[in-house]
C-alpha cells in the first residue's frame, strides 16, 4: 500500500513532464516557422542581402574639403594686409589688438557706461522713494 501513493505521484510527475516537453516542442516549432518565414521575406527584398553577396565598386578617393581654398582661381591673390580687418574700427590693414582707435574708444565707452549706470541707479532710487511717499 505504501507504493500506491508513490506510484500515483510518479504518474502525475510523468504527465507534468510530458506536458512540459510537448509545450516546449510546440514553441520551438513556432519559433522555427517564424524564423523561416522571416528569412523567406528577407530573401525577396533586395536590400536585405548579406554583405558577403553584395558587390562594391571602388570609386575615386574623396577629396577633403578645405574651407580656405579659394574658389575663383583667375582673380589676383590677396595680400596679407588686405585680408586683415580690424573688428573695432572695421578698417582693413591691421588687427583689433593693433588698433589705435580701440584704446581711446574703449576708455570713452567704459566712462559712458559707468556714468549711465550711475544715472539709472539714481533714477531707480528716486522712483522708489516717490512710491514710498505715495503709499
From TrEMBL:
A Pfam family it matches: zf-CCHC
Stretch list, region Disordered: 28-82
CCHC-type domain location: 84-99
A GO molecular-function descriptor: nucleic acid binding
Originating species: Golovinomyces cichoracearum
Segments passing through the bilayer: none
Biased composition (Basic and acidic residues): 28-38
Entry superkingdom: Eukaryota
PROSITE patterns (UniProt xref): ZF_CCHC
Keywords, ordered alphabetically: Metal-binding, Zinc, Zinc-finger
Name listed for the protein in its UniProt record: CCHC-type domain-containing protein
Amino acid at each position: 500500500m505504501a507504493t500506491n501513493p508513490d506510484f500515483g505521484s510518479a504518474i502525475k510527475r510523468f504527465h507534468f513532464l510530458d506536458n512540459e516537453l510537448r509545450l516546449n516542442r510546440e514553441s520551438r516549432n513556432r519559433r522555427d516557422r517564424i524564423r523561416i518565414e522571416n528569412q523567406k521575406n528577407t530573401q525577396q527584398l533586395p536590400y536585405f542581402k548579406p554583405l558577403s553577396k553584395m558587390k562594391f565598386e571602388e570609386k575615386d578617393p574623396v577629396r577633403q574639403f578645405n574651407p580656405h581654398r579659394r574658389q575663383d582661381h583667375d582673380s589676383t591673390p590677396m595680400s596679407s594686409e588686405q585680408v586683415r580687418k580690424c573688428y573695432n574700427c572695421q578698417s582693413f590693414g591691421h588687427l583689433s589688438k593693433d588698433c589705435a582707435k580701440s584704446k581711446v574708444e574703449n576708455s570713452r565707452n567704459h566712462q559712458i557706461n559707468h556714468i549711465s549706470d550711475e544715472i539709472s541707479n539714481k533714477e531707480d532710487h528716486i522712483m522708489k522713494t516717490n512710491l514710498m511717499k505715495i503709499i
